[in-house]
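pinned: reference chain
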Amino acid sequence: MNAAKAISLIEGMQEINMDLEKKVIKITYNNENITRYEIEKIIDEAITGRKAETF
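pinned: its structure tokens
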């Protein structure tokens, strides 16, 4: 659930779909200032317990 909380704080986030059994997170966002790589990094940091950067 840390990943969902971290994702929800991203500006422009529109939709979050999480499948815990398949370990899949699908998101829809509208923000040209953040890349897919940066979002993946935020999710990884939330899952591993590291402090996520603010974007």
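why pinned: Helices lie at 2-8, 36-48. The two ends are 19 Å apart (CA to CA).
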